[in-house]
């Protein structure tokens, strides 16, 4: 199916190229390629009236189901008021015949006008009612849209926050997510809106057609004749627009990236210090010029299509009036009926133009909405079953609140789409109250292993068990509740300092645990300098917001880990950005810390793991050495080598007294780290 569509697209592309290309006059930028996110746009560009007609019912069905779930009352009101408005349109048109019959009859004018008054009142009443009904339908339709929006957004975010973490490492999944988020979300309310417009247009058209059918059966095909050029122009113009969109997708992305570089605060210093301004402006202008060329070309081609369409429509309308004149001349229809027919044809044409436009829009947005639906289905299928509230609770085991021993047995793990496994048969133990360290070179698998232990990734093989209860048999929340993580990469939450520590748990103004955690991590010194202390918003994008240095942020991230009263604390490179004093304080705290808690420590600062109860050395996803510092040093393996390298580096950096800094201050922090 996908391949056939690709072939169709290819062939159509070749046809366009043979015709001289659809974008004659637009400059070329050879480096631009279409991103697969926008494959839909290509599909759309090849869509003709037949494909649209075939797929439209299912799109309208999806829209109707969505609207129904968002609000039954508003959906029912929108549909029924629109239908009723159609009835009054037809009624008004038919009443017009009465008016015209009275006006065109023989006799003095005042008498004819008097005779026409009852029908005139009916026409006026029908018009007023129709207007009121349409206003009511518009109002309920407007109410429907935000409700639909809320529904689709919630479904997406519920799925993205619950899906297995590994899904977010899968490039295909991320691609689908981006598509659903950027186009799919906004498409949902539009699909509903355009589906209602399709209904409104269809009702108006049926009303006009029904009226014509009642007046004379031959008039009906005449209406359709005038409809064709309008439909043709509309579809053609829309397809041109899609093709242009396709051409501009990559340009839009490049321009967006460049504008981000030129306007975002985080790039501003480098833009200046590397004197990037002329380069960025020139690049931006190149893409903008290309875009302008493509858009001007589109405007020209759309105008040509419109002129051709209007000319055709003029001819068709002329033919209709000639036919109507002939019918009148031959006495097939009376003058009053012909007059009403003219009105009905005009009403029908307007409804038809609206209908064609709505069908086009509905179809386009329906494709993007389809992306959204596909993504939600994929994401919901990737939520671990045991995480679902509906999962059979009797099958679930309960994790002990505390534990005596966490056992990792023969664990293997490969990231989605990765060629090689990141963990290959790892076994180890964490006993209550211990500090256990993971050591190894970059990419050896330390962080991945810590995430498996924290219940963030499910291993492909082997298992992690807390006092014999395998994590695969408990809901992820149970594990996350019992583990505190100080992660290597942490989020700068755009919240207050207090919320950055408490992370949605307690943390009221008088929460002593927040203060204790801040003291233990050195975050209290950071907070003391903030204008509003713990209530300072840590985001410069907002009025009164503050920002912190890398190390200050890390102190907060450490406080976050200490604040959670969990039996297992995982510290993954917790000191990378800390100054020497803060780092010293942190490891002192970890060493002294335990008060019954267990610490899994990952760090390249080997001086800090000397006091660990056990050290596991990882290489290429395997444990290659295990023991305490003394045992590993005596063994003379990788650990001893890495430790020796660091110790030697510190030793070499220790300047003799004569070479100290001009101020004569020895570097006491460094010395103390080595001595530690
Ligand atoms: N999200 C990911 N998707 C695919 N592969 C990944 C991902 N994260 C890590 N890897 C790969 O898994 C392996 C182990 O990475 P991991 O981050 O666990 O190493 P690490 O020992 O913590 O390294 P470092 O000391 O640099 O922090 C590496 O080969 C890495 O390329």
UniProtKB/TrEMBL annotation:
Basic and acidic residues: compositionally biased ranges: 7-26
Entry keyword ATP-binding: yes
Disordered, as annotated region: 1-33, 654-676
Membrane topology: Multi-pass membrane protein
Protein name (Swiss-Prot/TrEMBL): ATP-binding cassette domain-containing protein
UniProt domain ABC transporter: residue ranges: 406-645
Matches recorded under InterPro entries: AAA+_ATPase, ABC1_TM_dom, ABC1_TM_sf, ABC_transporter-like_ATP-bd, ABC_transporter-like_CS, P-loop_NTPase, Type_1_exporter
Residues passing through the membrane, by range: 79-104, 116-133
Cellular localisation: Cell membrane
SMART domains reported for this sequence: AAA
Source organism per UniProt: Actinomadura litoris
Residues annotated as domain ABC transmembrane type-1: 76-364
GO molecular function: ABC-type oligopeptide transporter activity; ATP binding; ATP hydrolysis activity
PROSITE patterns: ABC_TM1F, ABC_TRANSPORTER_1, ABC_TRANSPORTER_2
Record bears the keyword Membrane: yes
């Amino acid at each position: 199916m996908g391949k056939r569509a690709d072939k169709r697209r290819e062939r159509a592309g070749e046809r366009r190229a043979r015709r001289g290309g659809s974008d004659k006059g637009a400059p070329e930028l050879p480096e631009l390629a279409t991103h697969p996110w926008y494959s839909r746009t290509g599909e759309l560009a090849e869509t003709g009236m037949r494909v649209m007609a075939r797929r439209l019912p299912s799109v309208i069905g999806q829209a109707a189901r969505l609207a129904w779930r968002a609000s039954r009352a508003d959906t029912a009101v929108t549909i029924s008021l629109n239908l009723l408005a159609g009835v009054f349109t037809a009624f008004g048109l038919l009443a017009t015949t009465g008016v015209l019959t009275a006006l065109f009859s023989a006799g003095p004018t005042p008498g004819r006008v008097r005779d026409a008054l009852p029908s005139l009142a009916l026409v006026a009443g029908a018009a007023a009612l129709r207007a009121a009904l349409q206003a009511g339908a518009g109002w309920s339709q407007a109410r429907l849209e935000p409700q639909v929006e809320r529904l689709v957004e919630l479904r997406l975010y519920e799925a993205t926050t619950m899906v297995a973490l590994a899904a977010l490492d899968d490039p295909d999944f991320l691609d689908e997510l981006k598509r659903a988020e950027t186009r799919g979300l906004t498409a949902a309310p539009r699909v509903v809106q355009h589906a209602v417009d399709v209904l409104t247009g269809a009702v108006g058209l049926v009303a006009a057609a029904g009226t014509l059918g009642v007046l004379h059966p031959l008039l009906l095909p005449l209406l359709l004749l005038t409809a064709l050029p309008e439909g043709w122009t509309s579809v053609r113009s829309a397809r041109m627009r899609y093709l242009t969109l396709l051409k501009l997708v990559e340009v839009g992305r490049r321009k967006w990236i460049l504008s981000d570089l030129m306007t975002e605060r985080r790039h501003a210093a480098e833009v200046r210090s590397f004197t990037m301004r002329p380069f960025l402006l020139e690049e931006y202008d190149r893409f903008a010029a290309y875009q302008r060329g493509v858009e001007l070309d589109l405007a020209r081609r759309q105008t040509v299509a419109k002129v051709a369409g209007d000319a055709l429509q003029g001819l068709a309308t002329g033919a209709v009036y000639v036919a109507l004149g002939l019918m009148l001349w031959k006495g097939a229809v009376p003058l009053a009926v012909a007059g009403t027919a003219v009105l009905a044809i005009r009403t029908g044409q307007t409804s038809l133009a609206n209908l064609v436009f709505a069908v086009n829009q509905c179809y386009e947005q329906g494709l993007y909405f389809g992306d959204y639906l596909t993504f939600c289905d994929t994401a919901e299928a990737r939520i671990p079953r045991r995480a679902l509230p509906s999962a059979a609770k009797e099958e679930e085991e309960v994790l002990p609140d505390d534990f005596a021993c966490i056992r990792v047995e023969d664990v293997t793990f490969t990231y989605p789409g990765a060629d090689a496994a990141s963990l290959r048969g790892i076994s180890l133990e964490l006993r209550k109250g211990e500090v256990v360290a993971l050591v190894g070179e970059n990419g050896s698998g330390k962080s991945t292993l810590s995430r498996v232990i924290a219940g963030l990734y499910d291993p492909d093989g082997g298992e992690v068990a807390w006092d014999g209860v395998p994590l695969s048999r408990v809901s992820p929340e149970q594990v996350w509740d019992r583990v505190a993580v100080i992660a290597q990469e942490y989020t700068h939450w755009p919240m207050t300092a207090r919320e950055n520590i408490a992370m949605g748990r307690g943390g009221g103004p008088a929460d002593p645990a927040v203060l204790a955690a801040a003291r233990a991590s050195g975050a209290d010194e950071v907070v003391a300098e903030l204008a509003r202390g713990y209530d300072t918003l840590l985001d410069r994008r907002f009025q009164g917001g503050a920002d912190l240095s890398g190390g200050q942020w890390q102190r907060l991230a450490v406080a976050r880990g200490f604040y959670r009263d969990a039996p297992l604390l995982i510290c993954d490179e917790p000191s990378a950005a800390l100054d020497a004093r803060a780092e010293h304080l942190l490891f002192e705290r970890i060493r002294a810390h335990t008060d019954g808690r267990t610490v899994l420590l990952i760090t390249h600062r080997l001086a800090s793991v000397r006091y660990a109860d056990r050290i596991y050395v990882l290489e290429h996803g395997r444990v290659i050495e295990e023991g305490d510092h003394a045992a590993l040093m005596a063994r003379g393996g990788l650990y001893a080598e890495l430790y020796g390298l660091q110790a030697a580096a510190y030793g070499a950096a220790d300047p003799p007294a004569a070479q100290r800094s001009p101020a004569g201050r020895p570097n006491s922090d460094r010395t103390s780290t080595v001595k530690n």
